[in-house]
Design a protein that fits this description.
Blueprint: H1 4-17, H2 28-35, H3 39-51, E1 57-60, E2 66-69, H4 73-105
Antiparallel strand pairs: 1-2
Helix pairs in contact: 1-3, 2-3
Length: 106
């Protein structure tokens, strides 16, 4: 018998395989409606598929935004670009908070 997590992961993987490339993403909201599950369940499934199963699932935040199956280097570059931007933003926020807390402590 297949457990609920594995069932969700299979369903989300199947949906994503139909959305090949950065030009054809699907939003979490749409996958959640299709499978009648929460947005959080879809997001958790995508993370498991990426990290535990090492599947090439890309994402983009610009238009059209959503998740897609990475099929080439350009798809990968789109996904990595967003991660790099997010990392830079977080590093900047860390520096700002450290400076602010240093000012508070002084």
């Amino acid at each position: 018998m297949i457990n609920q997590t594995a069932r969700i992961d299979r369903a989300i993987e199947a949906i994503l395989r139909l959305h090949q490339g950065r030009e054809n993403p699907i939003r979490i909201e749409d996958m959640a409606k299709m499978e009648r599950i929460s947005h959080r369940s879809v997001w958790a499934s995508i993370e498991r598929l990426r990290t535990d199963h090492r599947l090439p699932i890309g994402s983009r935040r610009d238009s059209p935004g959503g998740y897609f199956w990475i099929r080439d280097d350009e798809d990968l570059d789109v996904t990595l670009g967003f991660y790099r931007k997010q990392i830079a933003t977080m590093q900047n926020n860390i520096a700002i908070l450290q400076a602010a807390c240093g000012e508070v402590a002084a």
